[in-house]
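Quick note —
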Amino acid sequence: MKKFGHFLCLAILFLPSIASAADWGVNSATLLRFEKRAVPGFPKRTLIPATQFVGVDLEKIGDGNLSLHLYGWGRVDLADRSTAGGATDGDLAYAYISYRFPTANGEIKAGRFIVKEGVAVEQVDGVAARALLMKGFSISLFGGAPVRLDMTEKNKGDYIVGGRAGFRLAGILELGLSGLHEGGVRLDPDRGVTDDRQMVGGDIWFSPVRFIDLNGHTYYNAATGGLAEHSYLLGIRPLKPLSIFASYDEQHFRNFFTYSNIRSLFNPDNGGELKSYGGGVTWAVTAPLEVTADYRRYNRASNVNNLFNTDSNGNSNRYGVGARLTLFDKKVRTGLSWHRADGASGFNSYHEVRGYGLYDSGRYVTSLDAIGQFYRNGIFGRREAYEVIGSAGYRILSELLLSGELSYGRNPQFSDELRGVLRISYNYNSANKGAK
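Predicted structure written out below.
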């Protein structure tokens, strides 16, 4: 919560900049969520966390190339605690200033920001810069301190640096080579074991003709000396109403999850791997009706066989069909789908059925969504899990939306689960030069 207080102080401090900003915007969302949980053998719990999100964007400050961006949130529990931490919490998602140069699409920013540069997807307190070079080449660099997560103060390194070099052939090809180095990562905080995190990666987007495109990436863990991930997606659209896709993914747990802060869940120590491939077809039968069919194969291997992970090993298939219908000038959208998962054992073999409907008039929005899974073998004595979610929204003003959601379900974990949320969203943008 202290971080959110710092964010509010920053927002108030920079409010005078609005006067000199040509464009500025404020957005907020207030969420009041309630949930009742009933777990066999435990007392019932009532959760009512209230969460406030606030964002401020100031553009074209000073000479028109400077901008300021702030976004944060805070939460307070009005009943039982909704997390294992305290009754209050908050965080500063980002707070940075940015300067765009008139040439080469250059930009430099400083503060807290999100980095998405190839292999690097990080939240950093530091400095970043990027620019287009000659003949289609580009470069981006960043450095600073990795932002620590709230759940522990020992899950990030002392510093992080990285960047990406790219080449682009407009409309046909884009290639990237990226890397990062994070120093002093706590692999085992309890025993004080640290190491440096070193990742390199390559990414590609390729579209030799307008109806074919391939995109994906390969990441390599230089610290452990092994492949971390392959992920590639091929899309083909030979006819306007017909879309075909194929994908391939591969993760090696020891290299992919080495620096996970939740080792009990993302365990790299067993040295296992997961390979999956599949594809699908979408056909727009008529203007309002669209049908799909998809298939995916999973090959899961682990170097450890014990009571807890034998059901995760082996091969499995997931396949199914679905249909979507759009009516009344896209005001009404509905869908129905069925999927079958054939797992390596009955523990993860099930049928899944889902149906939904949405009505959006511009002023009013309502929806109903239902999903059910029916397992071959029981889990904790239950062979089904289902949930029904209903929502409604009313746009009070063009900038102000009031909405709510209510859901009820039963599953192997909860004998009854009732949840709801009330949301107020506000978005306002102003341009001094008369633009909307």
